[in-house]
Amino acid sequence: MCGIVGLFAKHPSIEADLGAHLATMLAALAERGPDSAGFAIYSGGSAARTKFTLRPPAGSDPDALGIPDGAITVRGSHAVLTVPAALAGSARAALAARAPETVVVGRGASMELYKEVGLPADVARSFALAAMTGTHGIGHTRMATESAVTTDGAHPFSTGPDQCLVHNGSLSNHNAWRRTLRRRGYGFATENDTEVAAVYLTARIDEGYSLGDALRAGLNDLDGFYTFVVGTGSGFAVLRDPIACKPAVMAETDTFVAFGTEYRALAALPGIATARVWEPEPATVYAWERAGDA
Amino acid sequence: MSGGAQTVDLASASLRDLNAALHALPHDTNMTRWHVRNPDGRHAIAAGLTAPVRVEIDGHAGYYCAGMNMAATVIVRGNAGTGVAENMMSGRVHVLGDASQSAGASAHGGLLLIEGNAAARCGISLKGADIVVKGSVGHMSAFMAQSGTLAVFGDAGEGFGDSIYEAHLYVRGRVASLGADCIEKPMRDHHRAELLALLSEAGAAGAVDVGAFRRYGSARTLYTFHVDNAAAY
Fold first, then answer.
1. ipTM of the predicted structure?
2. pLDDT at residue A256 in the model
3. What is B6-232's CATH topology?
4. CB B41 to CB A267 under 8 A?
5. Which residues of A touch B40 (CB under 8 A)?
6. What is the pTM of this model?
7. Which residues, 6 or more positions from A146, have their beta carbon under 8 angstroms from its beta carbon?
8. Among the three residues A93, A109, A125, which one is the final residue of a domain in this structure?
9. Edge-to-edge strand order for the sheet containing A224-232?
10. Of B62, B79, B82, the CB nearest to A277
11. Which of A91-105, A136-150, A171-185, B118-132 has the lowest mean pLDDT?
């Protein structure tokens, strides 16, 4: 099971309501994934600043972290630390030293990433997703199969700056790839199969692959069932395994491109009645880039 | 309720109530016309019908729309999700948009007409129904199809007709690859007549030339298991 969604603004008119639409899309897929939910949203990006989305230990005060030149915004169980980009490295080191139990969920110029155990509508509400704005976002509702129901096991997984991945399916060779990638120096926070796919794509991008080429390489390297939706600072991409084991629907209008595991997730989007709605082909990379950002 | 057209808006009415009302119709009902508004991808809309009524669904339907259909005519004015008309016994299901995977799976009888494309596994385990797809079908279509007919105006994806029994397959476009034990067969006069009759029933007889179709079927070397064929599995 599991449900995944993605929404990409082709026109700025939808950006103010991007969070509200994403929240509705997640709630519509609660039956496919009632264990936990999460989302990444790209908003207010600036190359001059780096955002760290943090999950501090329960009961701690994120405002007391005291990162030099850092600004903290608390959202539910998470907090976003914004620092000048030049200080990102030292901020990361300071976090590790001062708050070793604080989990860095994601980082990037524009990406914020939130995930939690619970029903999708409750998770979205706890982070006030409906009030968020953004250029694009992806989300996931989880029914766990390969690892435990924990916040760390919820999607999206982010293993590179402004990169994140949601996955519907299960990989069968993730242990072998985790060992391979560990030998290459990549770290893992969980035993989750999806995290392996995220690190795999990050490693390919580090090698110089484009996002599309990294996904195409994954067709040969990653064994199992998957529909992936990947977010980057400038766009998002969709890939289904060659058997197309997991369902997928896409919709496009002049205003947006949307992805849903089922059409139910797209049914409330503005203008959906006249949108082009189609099923993405197996083993085919679909990618959208924001004009000017690529 | 009267014998006029019944309209059910799923934005406010419950899907379960709609299906229960349709299931309760006697075979000689005079409530023969139903309109379903705002389907919004809900699952199992108009599944399990047994009365000869006409149900029009204004929008995209979810999984198993018109599943197990018997006698009814179900029209989807949009796309249909996984398993439209699966296990249909009789009647007619008409999808004006695309159909997702496993359209017409295991269907025993009736006609499934898809104006757009059908995704993977269209007509999987077909058991006697007729399927007409005006677009293309995805991979592994007609997998283990036992009887019935699948006519495709466009192309067929990989593994077409894999492990087929005695279903009749007609494709006008390109077949990406044939599955195990599926071969192209000569198109004889009685095949052209069969295809023309099917296209006439689908209201598409004038749309395409039956002479442009190629016929595929079983080589009959696999389904009666023989140890010499073990490597083919």
1. 0.89
2. 97
3. Pectate Lyase C-like (2.160.20)
4. yes
5. 263-264, 267-268
6. 0.92
7. A170, A171, A174, A192, A193
8. A109
9. A157-160, A163-171, A224-232, A235-240, A286-289
10. B79
11. A136-150
